[in-house]
Structures are given as structure tokens and as C-alpha cells.
Amino acid sequence: MSPFKIYSPTASTVPIVVSVPHCGISFPDDIRDEYKSSLAQAPDDTDWFVDKLYDFAPSMGMTMITAVYSRWVIDLNRDPESKPLYSDGRIITALCPSTTFLGEPLYNDERSTVADEEVKRRYTLYYKPYHVKVQELLNDLKSKFGKVLLWDCHSIRQIVPTIQREKFPDLILGDADGKAAGAEFIQSTLKTLSSDKYSLSHNHPFKGGAITRSFGKPSEDQHALQLEMPKVHYMDDAEVNYHEERARHMRQLLQENFRQLIELLR
Questions:
Q1: Which of 72, 99, 153, 247 could pair with 234 in a Cys bridge, judged by C-beta atoms 3.0 to 4.6 Å apart?
Q2: Residue 98 falls within a domain, yes or no?
Q3: Which InterPro entries does this UniProt record tie to the protein (predicted)?
């Protein structure tokens, strides 16, 4: 099974790729039984329904790529060498995690790490193909339009005490401290997202993961932005079910933001 799904534009193509690397919930058959079944049945660290939240993207001309496998198999937004993305004491799970964000062991044998050879195997089978495909999509669009933007989509529980004790801001835009995208795209996005009811933070507590940092090359007309949001802004209070009304409002804001970005890219 391919580690990703591609949703091609259903309207006139625009130079934006929408990436959803943490929506996958599947586990490969050869390792599924190694995980605690109580956890694997509904992997809690999933960015639940983010692919559904952004499913309007193809109708706006954008190309969308989504992950198939759980981030507990391999985390597509981590450094391939498992180098920490932050150094402020927060919990940072590895490329192939052995625990949840809350420190719960994922595997039946409660291993503290995944063996190096197994990490390399999963990297080859699942991580590398996703990243290679993202770059292929960006290259194709850049060859047609001259410049391109990658939008990386994420969500998180409203409170994750192993990262920070307080509630997260409503919207968190990450651009690797301005290194991953041109100022015009950053400023346009900040302006649009701050125009609504949501609180907005810029590069704190998230400044973009490995995807934003590796694909963001503004000097080459390849830009990348990450948007993180608490799940309650499109799910119910228990962060279990998709909430149509909350999602509708968020989708409207996201669509307006993309309209502005599309104009800039033109």
C-alpha cells in the first residue's frame, strides 16, 4: 500500500501543495501486532480529520497529499536523523516513536527505542517516498508557475502538558523564524488569520517541523508554511468527533487565506 494519497486539483491548477502528514491511522500488517491494541485502535496522537477539514483544497486548484500510516509507525514531520526540533525541554518523540506524547509505551514489549535497522527500513518504505513525492509535486508546479508554496497542516490537543502547561493559541503559524517563506506570504497569512475570532501566534510554540524547514527555500521560489491548531476548533469539546459548525467557520477562514495566497503567487 502506498504511504500517501494524492488528491489532484478539480479546478484550474494553482501553485500550492497542501500536505497532511499526521492524519494517517493505518499500521503495516507486518508490525501491527507489535503495538498495544488498545492504543493502535485509535492512535491518539493523530491529527484527526485534518484531511477532511482541508478537503476543499482540490476545488480551489490545489494539490493535496495525505499520509496513510500513523505517525507512530514513522513521523513524517521529524528530522530523519531524529535530531530535536526544539531545545526547550518539551517532549519530542523520535522519528519512530516508542511512546505517545504523554509518555505511554506504544509497544507490547514496552521497548524504549525502535532498533536502528527497523528505523532505516521504515524510513525507506514510508518516510522517503512521502518526501520525494512532495518535492516532485512542488517541482511540477514550479516548472509551470515559476514559484510554489507548500502548506503543511497540523492539529493538536488543546492541552499537552509535556509540551507546555497552558492551552495552545488558537492558530500557530510556523515559518522557521522567517527562513521557510518569503515575507509577503508570511505577512499576508498573518493578516488574514488575525482578522477572525481566533488568537494567533507566530513561531511559538511551534515554528514548523522537518517538512517546513526542509522544503522552505524562498531563495529558490519554493516557500513553506505550517499551520497548527487545537482540535477543538473543528472537533467537539472531547476532541473525538468532527464538529460541522466549528469546522465550517474554520474552513471559511482557511479558504479566504488561500485566496489571498493564490493572488500573491500570481
A1: 247
A2: no
A3: N-FG_amidohydro
Summarised one tens digit per residue, pLDDT across range 216-227 is: 999 999 999 999
253/259 Cα distance (integer angstroms): 10
**What is the value of pTM for the model shown?**
0.96
Number of domains in the chain: 1
Burial class (CB in 10 A: 0-12, 13-18, 19+), 173: buried
Apex CA 221: angle with CA 199 and CA 209, to 5°?
Answer: 45
- Specify if 224 maps to a domain: yes
| Domain presence at residue 252 | yes
Assess if residue 219 is contained within a domain: yes
* pLDDT tier, 153 (very low <50, low <70, confident <90, very high otherwise): very high
- 3-state DSSP helix/strand/coil % of the chain, to nearest 5: 35, 20, 45
For residue range 95-113, what is the model confidence (pLDDT) as tens digits? 999 999 888 999 999 999 9
> How is residue 120 written as a grid cell?
532505516
With beta carbons less than 8 A apart as the criterion, state whether 206 and 230 touch: no
Domain harbouring 192, CATH code:
3.40.630.40
How many CA atoms does the CB half-sphere of 11 hold within 13 Å? 10
- What the block records as the C-alpha cell of 103 is 509518555
Q: Which of 50, 99, 80 is nearest to 254 (CA)?
A: 50
> What residue numbers bound the domain in which 158 lies?
4-28+44-71+130-265
C-alpha 101/C-alpha 45 separation (Å) is 7
Contacts of 69 (CB under 8 A, 6+ apart): 3, 24, 26, 27, 28, 126
Q: What are phi and psi of 51, to 5 degrees?
A: -65, -35
